[in-house]
Write a structure and sequence with these properties.
DUF6009, mainly beta, Transcription factor, six-stranded antiparallel β-sheet, 3% helix, 6 strands
């Protein structure tokens, strides 16, 4: 199960771990997943590849309703622009998915933002647009 992260959901984050360099990635998708652990690489069950994840503080509480921990995952799907930069048929040649953010704007406790780079445009776009 995953959801779009909100700032309040991220208060227990200790760090963001990148599994690969984000230097050449215009954007990554982010999701708030319910998992059994506070830290370490979470199980990944989407198409595409896991790019990074968050670790939580040692005393981060479990969710009262599910008993699980809410942690962010960062990923790319096979059809995303960073995977197909020269493909004219790429669905995100301009723009990006709703849940996408520029990885350079990601910090523990912060949702990240869309930028001109993540949108492949010259103007800055507010997150969630």
């Amino acid at each position: 199960m995953s959801a779009m992260p909100q700032e309040g959901d991220l208060a227990q984050e200790a760090e963001v771990v990148w599994l690969e360099s984000t230097e050449d990635l215009d954007y990554v998708r982010q999701a708030l997943d319910k998992v059994n652990t506070r830290k370490g690489k979470p199980r990944y069950e989407r198409d595409g590849r896991l790019i990074g994840y968050s670790n939580l503080l040692p005393k981060a509480p479990r969710s009262a309703d599910s008993g699980l921990f809410a942690r962010r995952t960062f990923y790319l799907l096979p059809h995303d622009r960073p995977n197909r930069p020269d493909d004219p048929e790429c669905p995100y040649k301009v723009g990006s998915p709703l849940e996408a953010v520029d990885p350079r704007t990601v910090e523990p406790g912060k949702t990240g933002a869309k930028t001109a780079r993540s949108q492949a445009t010259a103007e800055i776009v507010p997150a969630g647009s």
